Amino acid sequence: MVLKELINECKKHNRKAQKEIYDRFSGNLFASCLKYAPNYEEAQDVLQDTFIVVFNKIDQFKDDGSFEGWCRRIAVNTALQRYRKKKFLI
């Protein structure tokens, strides 16, 4: 399926489309998460949290930009939020 079609299907909460997007982008996003997370397990948590946000806010994605770039920005923001929370808890 073409990316634009996948995004439209995800907006309709189609699980198969969500899985395909996850499969397509999780590798690159995980690499981004590893840059911001202190360890492998934290990076996995950040990745999962990232996809929760991506699928909850996919209606806000505008077709004029890169979907992968939009997802990467969410991943970075998610990692930074987790870091700030942990910093306050210490």
TrEMBL record:
**According to the UniProt entry, where is the signal peptide?**
none
Protein keywords: Sigma factor, Transcription, Transcription regulation
Describe the location of the RNA polymerase sigma-70 region domain by residue ranges.
Answer: 22-87
Pfam families assigned to the protein according to its UniProt record, in alphabetical order: Sigma70_r2 (PF04542)
Keyword set includes Phosphoprotein: no
Tell me one GO biological process term: DNA-templated transcription initiation
Please name the GO terms that the record assigns under molecular function. sigma factor activity
Does Transcription regulation appear among the keywords? yes
Entry-linked InterPro entries: RNA_pol_sigma-70-like, RNA_pol_sigma-70_dom, RNA_pol_sigma70_r2, RNA_pol_sigma_r2
Q: Which NCBIfam families match?
A: sigma70-ECF
**What is the name attached to this protein's record?**
RNA polymerase ECF-type sigma factor
The scientific name of the source species is Nonlabens ulvanivorans (Persicivirga ulvanivorans)
In the record, what lineage is assigned to the organism producing the protein?
Bacteria, Pseudomonadati, Bacteroidota, Flavobacteriia, Flavobacteriales
